[in-house]
Design brief:
heterodimer; A: alpha/beta; 2 domains; 8-stranded mixed β-sheet; 4-stranded antiparallel β-sheet; 12 strands; 23% strand; B: alpha/beta; 10 helices; 29% helix; 22% strand
């Protein structure tokens, strides 16, 4: 199953100065599948990447590329049908894959926290938002109700919710979408986690609100030296806020690079296509190109070695060989037989 | 100018809160669309942008005559369609000429209709086509125009991908040859790769069929690529309008500048105009205060004593602000 000898990312970390200390999160050759009635879905295959302390890493790809599934797997909140078949993931030396649920529950919410896509559905609709923050505090820290309340109000203040004493008693429906997302952030950051996973935190928000929410996440992450994983399908957003970007396609990591380099000189054909399809830079509609075809059906038994090869202009017979890990620069890795 | 659609001082006020007893105090009113005027020429593509809650959707529902306006006129092809109650408009022939593509292709398709049924429905209802062979021929023609393979026509929405569903939504809207197509964030639910394909399709269809577009979006980049003119709304008011190039190159209103600054730029860092706080309440707003007052980085002077009017600054480029940035 695992065709690569060398784990994908550890080599990248040796070159770019981050290797001074071991990465906070290290995912190596992770494979994951779902057993469904219509067959086995090979959702992730041989995925490797790392996140250093205090670093912001973007994970970019189309829907169905496995971005969210990977983070659910890391958080241990995968659907029962999902199973990690190979690889490992460590968080500050702690093995996330083999961990017992009780141990994981200690880390989740305290050391690693997650912001979900739709704040309205992720928050409990019939519990006051302040109490939801207190629940997290009471679960993970030894505090009294009164202390938790004071701390919850402080959390709401930190995410710049006006009048936090009053908002503490608000229900999610009484808040705007942007404010709900701020509550989600307050909830995630209540215990000062070392790693924040933000799964499309601004989908469904206005551009102005999106900018405010992202600025806030960035500022809080810097203040606390917190590592952040930003999952998004918007390459423009990732480029603006992330130090490094991991590009995923159909359950594979196809390219990892420092942001500026990835945007300026993408090496994987898929990354290049993704950039060309993003309306941010296009001068006119003619300049906006689309990506041929769709993601392959991940239930197929005959999935090609390179899952992009069927959509790729550069594909040749050589693409059926096991995927190489090409080092295209310092900390820049590309898994392609014919990189640009 | 012979406009296809002309909106004149359109208003929509929704009563909110408890109905007052007696005449103690007037009913509280939410000003969703407040004194909005604009026109769309035949074949023109106009973008409508603004944050959620700014009245875009209400305006669209007024134009499509799903809602009755509180005051003002809607003229379509010279005829005042605003006067007709929404319930009666459903049977009017102007209904067929104004069609809409909805935001989420999954939610806006009937899950129990096949793609064929969905596209055929307006032909039967609005074009009153009864000949089954003719309906089939037209559905297949439209599907081909929208790049929908014919073998997908017997499928139900859950058997189609997001891009294919978007194509069905577009095919349904254009099957009865509308003259004005209203697109409510047609690409918001799609991946970038699919979004590019759908944008190309929309541009091609407009060229082939000569339709006018009213394109509602909060993605300014998409508007820039697809539209000739753009209208920026804030809390029920038009704050800036003009040719896309002019508005994007020289935004005059501070709100438009903030909106532009909020677009992720593929570049890290940089100084940007950021908006603080939330918009003012749209319920019974003070008619003498600029709606953007308090959130605006440039407020001062007359901003809280006089509502700025929409005035033209350059060729077709109008702004409602006391302190527009100098072009």
């Amino acid at each position: 199953m695992n065709v690569i000898d060398e784990p994908f990312v550890s080599s990248s970390l040796r070159g770019d100065g981050l290797a001074v200390q071991p990465p906070l999160l290290d995912v190596a050759s992770l494979s994951l599948e779902f057993r469904t009635r219509s067959g086995v879905v090979h959702a992730l295959e041989d995925v490797s990447f790392a996140v250093a302390r205090g670093e912001t890493v973007g994970i970019v790809g189309e829907s169905g590329s496995g971005k969210s599934v990977m983070c659910y797997a890391l958080m241990g909140i995968l659907d029962a049908a999902g199973r990690i078949t190979a690889g490992r993931a460590t968080f500050g030396g702690f093995d996330l894959v083999g961990a017992k649920e009780d141990d994981l529950a200690q880390i989740r919410g305290r050391e690693m926290a997650m912001i979900f896509q739709n704040p309205r559905t992720a928050l409990n609709p019939i519990r006051r938002v302040g109490l939801q923050i207190e629940d997290v505090l009471l679960r993970h820290t030894a505090t009294t109700r009164a202390q938790a309340r004071a701390r919850a109000i402080e959390c709401l203040r930190q995410v710049r919710i006006p009048d936090p004493e009053r908002r503490h008693a608000a229900y999610p429906f009484e808040l705007s979408g942007g404010q709900c997302q701020r509550v989600m952030i307050a909830l995630a950051l209540a215990c000062n986690p070392q790693l924040l996973i933000a799964d499309e935190p601004t989908t469904g928000l206005d551009v102005t609100t999106q900018a405010a929410v992202m600025d806030l996440v960035q500022a809080l992450a810097r203040e606390r030296q917190m590592a952040t994983i930003l999952i998004t399908h918007d390459l423009g957003l990732a480029a603006e806020y992330c130090d490094r970007i991991v590009v995923m396609h159909a359950g594979h990591v196809v390219e990892v690079a420092p942001t500026a380099e990835l945007v300026r000189a993408p090496r994987h054909p898929y990354t290049a296509k993704l950039i060309a399809a993003t309306p941010h830079g296009a001068a006119s509609l003619r300049a906006l190109s689309s990506i041929r075809g769709n993601l392959p059906d991940l239930r197929r038994g005959d999935l090609p070695r390179c899952r992009f090869s069927e959509r790729c202009d550069r594909a040749t017979a050589a693409c059926t060989a096991p995927l190489p890990v090409n080092e295209a620069g310092i900390g820049h890795l590309v898994r392609c037989h014919h990189p640009l | 100018m012979n406009a296809l659609l002309e909106i004149d001082r359109l208003r929509k006020l929704f009563p909110v809160g408890p109905r007052p007893v007696g005449k103690a105090r007037p009913q509280a009113l939410l000003h969703a669309v407040d004194d909005v005027s604009f026109a769309i020429a035949p074949g023109e593509s106009v973008g409508l942008v603004g944050e959620s809650g700014c009245g875009k959707s209400t305006l669209v529902r007024l134009v499509t005559r799903l809602l009755d306006a509180s005051s003002g006129a809607i003229r379509f092809d010279g005829r005042d369609i605003g006067a007709e109650p929404a319930a009666r408009f459903a049977g009017s022939d102007a209904r067929a000429a104004i069609q809409m593509v909805f935001q989420d292709p999954t939610d806006s398709l009937n899950p129990r209709y096949t793609a064929f049924d969905t596209i055929a429905e307006p032909l039967a209802r609005l074009a009153r086509m009864t000949d089954r062979a003719a309906v089939r021929a037209r559905v297949e023609e439209v599907a081909a125009q929208c790049g929908l393979p014919l073998e997908l026509l017997p499928r139900f929405p859950h058997q189609l991908s997001g891009g294919q569903k978007a194509r069905v939504g577009i095919a349904r809207a254009i099957s009865i040859r509308p003259r004005l197509l209203i697109l409510d964030e047609p690409t918001a639910a799609l991946d970038v790769s699919v979004q590019a394909v759908i944008l190309h399709l929309l541009a091609d269809l407009r060229e082939q069929l000569g339709m006018s577009y009213l394109f509602v979006s909060h993605d300014l980049n998409v508007v820039r690529l697809l539209c000739d003119r753009v209208i920026v709304m804030y809390l029920g008011k038009v704050v800036e309008s003009g040719p896309v190039q002019a508005v994007f190159d020289r935004p005059l209103h501070p709100y438009t500048r903030a909106l532009m600054g909020a677009i992720p730029s593929m570049e890290k860092g940089g100084t940007k105009v950021r908006l603080d706080g939330e918009p003012r309440s749209p319920i019974d707003p003070d008619p003498a205060v600029c709606r953007f007052y308090g959130r605006c980085p440039q407020s001062g002077g007359r901003c809280n004593t006089e509502m700025p009017a929409l005035t033209e600054h350059a060729m077709g480029h109008a702004v409602a602000c006391h302190h527009p940035s100098t072009p």
